[in-house]
What we know:
nine-stranded mixed beta sheet; alpha/beta
Amino acid sequence: MLETLRITEIFYSLQGETRTAGLPTVFVRLTGCPLRCQYCDTAYAFSGGEIQSLDEILAKVAAYKPRHVCVTGGEPLAQPNCIPLLQRLCDAGYAVSLETSGALDIAAVDPRVSRVVDLKTPGSHEVARNRYENIGLLTSNDQVKFVICSRADYDWAVSKLIEYRLDQRAGEVLFSPSQHELKARDLAEWIIADNLPVRLQLQLHKILWNDEPGH
């Protein structure tokens, strides 16, 4: 049986986030997500999309001759064939990352993939969806992301950082301000004041292109 995925878009741009921010990257955006975070900036990927075979997806990615490939959504892991896609991308020699909400099991993801696991803060309105079992699966190849909406969210994120020793489990812990809700400078000053072992993350693509399609 032909393996397929529902795809919203495949495009080439600069990675705007994570440890590879600024590097040219092909993005494979899968359709569908079981969460509804109040700050979501990719709601257009909740539905629609186009059914494509894994061979078609790999061919489109290869046409860009990339070094880095990011599989994102939506929530990519909501489609089971995301797992073989990730494996085939790794087999093709790309540096592969996966952006996931953290609500679904990451155990089956190829260990060569850098899993960027979002821990949902209370301000997201989806904090109850966090799958904390994923934390025990993290390695130094993985990254943990918090989108911070307020000082209360920051304090919550710091408590999780300490409780789960996230800076020792993952290769990177990323604190990102929610656009239009928290000033990046405020978050930066809090991180400095508390001497946190985290990386401040700004969304480079929004600074450069203001969320224009295809970026």
